[in-house]
Amino acid sequence: MGYRGQQRDFARHDRVAGLLRRELGVLVQRELNDPEIGFVSVSDVEVSRDLAVAKVYVSVLESDKATSSLAALNRGAGYLRGILGQQLRMRTTPELRFLQDTSIETGEHMDALLASVRSSSEEE
């Protein structure tokens, strides 16, 4: 019985994360009119096991606006949570915490490192 319960719980928390990712992707663009928010896109959502907290990872196109964009998103988190609560009709809507997704920058850095290794090996 324990295994089946864990599997069902995992699937639910996975479904909630996917649903929040889709909805927030639209809401961030449509509902928040804060000029401090640059061009951002929701890249991933991780929901805690108890569905109380959702870490929302966003990619910021202009890296110099990342700090101000994240601050503005976190200021608007309560507003977005209220809209999600109405739209999704969940018993409890998770608290939203916006974080920067640095995977794109990390990938670009890795590509640059690989390119420099290739160019130095070609010079030898």
Structure described in brief:
With about 120 residues, the protein is of the alpha+beta class. It has helices spanning about 1-30, 65-75, 75-90, 105-124, and strands at about 40-45, 55-60, 95-100.
Key structural traits:
single chain; alpha+beta; three-stranded mixed β-sheet; 4 helices; 124 residues; GMP Synthetase, Chain A, domain 3
Describe it.
The chain has 124 residues and is of the alpha+beta class. The protein has one domain: GMP Synthetase, Chain A, domain 3. The chain has 4 helices and 3 strands, in the order αββααβα. It has helices at 2-31, 66-75, 77-88, 103-123, and strands spanning 40-47, 53-60, 95-100. A 3-stranded mixed β-sheet has the order 1-2-3. The radius of gyration is 19 Å and the shape is elongated. The termini are far apart.
SSE arrangement:
Elements: H1 2-31, E1 40-47, E2 53-60, H2 66-75, H3 77-88, E3 95-100, H4 103-123
Parallel strand pairs: 2-3
Antiparallel strand pairs: 1-2
Give the C-alpha Rg: 19 Å
CATH superfamily: K homology (KH) domain
Q: Mean pLDDT score, rounded?
A: 85
Strand order of the largest sheet: 1-2-3
Strand content: 15-25%
Shape: elongated
* Helix-strand string: HEEHHEH
Tally the structural domains: 1
Question: What is the makeup of the main sheet?
Answer: 3 strands, mixed
Distance between the termini: 62 Å
Number of helices: 4
Given as residue ranges, the uncertain stretches (5+ residues, pLDDT < 50) are none
* Class of secondary structure makeup: alpha+beta
CATH C-level label: Alpha Beta
- Number of E strands: 3
